[in-house]
Amino acid sequence: LPPVRTTSPRMHFAPRNNWMNDPNGLVFHDGLYHLYFQYNPQGVEHANLSWGHATSADLLRWTEHDPAILWDDTAQIYSGSVVVDHGNTSGFGTDQDPALVALYTAAAPGRQAQALAYSTDGGYVWTKYDGNPVLDRGTSDFRDPKVFRYDDGGDGYWVMVAVEAEDCQVLFHRSDDLTTWTFLSSYGPAGPVGGVWECPDMFPLAVDGDDDDVRWVLLISLNPGGIAGGSGTHYVVGDFDGTTFRASVPHPAPPRELLRDGGQSRDELERYGWIDFGPDCYAGVTFDGLARDERTLIAWMDNWEYAGRIPGGDSNEHRSAMTLPRRLSLTRDEVGAERLRQRPAVDLDPGESIDLAGVAGSVVLAEGVAGAARVGFTATFGDAQSVELHIESASDDGRVVIRQDRTSGRIELVRSGEKMPLGFHRSPSMRLDRPREVGWDLWIDDLNERVSSIELFAQNGERVLTALVPVTSPRTYTVVVIGGTLHGARADVAERGC
Ligand code: FRU
After folding, report:
1. 261 pLDDT tier (thresholds 50, 70, 90)
2. What is the DSSP code (8-state) at residue 288?
3. Which atom of ligand 1 lies nearest, measured to the CA of 165?
4. Is 26 exposed, middle or buried (0-12, 13-18, 19+ CB in 10 A)?
5. How far apart are CA 145 and CA 21, in angstroms?
6. Model's pTM, two decimal places?
7. Which residues are annotated as catalytic?
8. Mean pLDDT of 66-83
9. What are the pocket residues of ligand 1 if the criterion is a CB atom closer than 6 Å to any ligand atom?
10. In angstroms, rounded to a whole number, what is the distance separating the alpha carbons of residues 239 and 222?
11. Cα of 145 from ligand 1 centre, angstroms
C-alpha cells in the first residue's frame, strides 16, 4: 500500500495540485476503488476540464495517476460515471476481460451531449469512442450521466440518469449496448428548485436492511438554492419500475418563477431530504460495483459560491478535497418517513474514553492535537440548556463552536476568526428529531495551512453537516456544558497525527 499522506489533508483525497471539483466515475473493480474527478491539469482555475484519476484499496490511502480523459479543442470533459461492462455488451472488451466504460458530458459552448470512452487496461488508459456523442438532445445544459445496470429479472439493461440542468429535470434513458440510448421518462421540476439541477444518482437500498423492503434513492445536486446557501444536495426516496421513478411523498411542481435563484424559504427547504446541512458537500455520487449494503458516496467538499477563492496553502497548490467516503443506508422513522443514513467508510482507533458525567462548565478533551482527528461524543441532556464543542487553533485566532441546544432542537456550527475567508460568515444548522440526545461523530482534517474541514455525523448519521472552517492545526478541543448538567456523557478524541 502507498503510505498515508504526509501532507494535508490526511484522511481526505485531494490532488497533488491544481483545480478539482466533482467526483466522477466512482467504480470498485478488481479490489481497487477508482476515483476520477473534474480536474484542470494546467492550473488552479475551473478550466480545461478533464478527468483526473486516483485509486485506493481502502478508501483512505489514495494514489494519484495520470489524468484519465483529457479535454480537447472540441469539448471539455464534464462529469459522468464509469461501469464495468461485464457482459461485453458494448463490444469494447471481451467476456473474460470486460472493458470499463465511461459516460461523460462533452461540453462545448452552447452544446452539452453525452459521450463515451472506454478502457481495456483496468481504468488507466482511455480511448474516446469514435461514434461520439452517444446521446445528444441538441440542448445546452444536458449533463452529468450516471449509468447503472438495471436488473429486470431477465437479461437486464443499462439505465442512465442525467439532468436538463436549467429545467430542473432528471431524464432517464435506457440502452442495451451503452452506445444507443432511448428515452424512458423524466422527473421534475419538483421540490428544491432555486438553482440548476446537477450530478444525479439513483440506487436501491433495503430499508433497515430488510431485503423485502427495497426503495430507490434519487440524489440531485442543486446550485444555488441549497439548504446552507449556494450548492447543496437533496435526495428523494421512491420507487423505480425500470421506466419511471415515483417519489414516496411527491413534491408539488413549483411555480415557474421559483425556478431561478432562491425563492424558497428555509422552512420550505427543511421539508425536503438533504444529504448534508452544511455548505461544503456537493455533487456527491456513489460507487458502482459494490453490494447494495455497501453503497458508498463521495462528494466534493466545497461550494460553487466561493470555490475559486478558497485560500491555497503554502506548500499545496490544490484548492479543495473530497468528503470522506460515506456508507449509505435507509431507515424508516417513527412517522414512517424514509431517511438516509451515512457513516464514514473509514475509521480511526478510538481515543481514550473520557467520562463527562455530571460536568457543568468546560472540560478540555485534548490539547494541541496536530493532524486529522475524530471526536466522538454521546450524552443525554439532564437539566443542561445546551452543550458546545469549541475547537480552537493554537497557531491563529480561528475558532469553531458547535452547539446543540435543547430549546431550538438544533445543532449549529459557528465560525469566527480574523482571517475568515469569504463565504464563511454563515452558521449552518440542522434540526434534530430528539434534541435531548447527543450523538456526535465529528471528523476534522486540514485542507491546507489555512483552511480545515469538519464533517459532523449526528443522530445515527441521519443528520450530517460538512463545513470548511478557518481553524488550523494544532487544535484544542473543549466541551462546554451550559445551564445544568448532562447524563452519561462520554467523549473521545482519536488522532491521525502528522
Ligand atoms: C457540478 C458541475 C457539473 C458539471 C461539472 C463541470 O459541480 O457543474 O454539472 O458537469 O461541474 O465541471
Report:
1. low
2. B
3. 9
4. buried
5. 16
6. 0.97
7. 22
8. 98
9. 21-22, 38, 49, 78-79, 105, 143-144, 198-199, 283
10. 21
11. 11
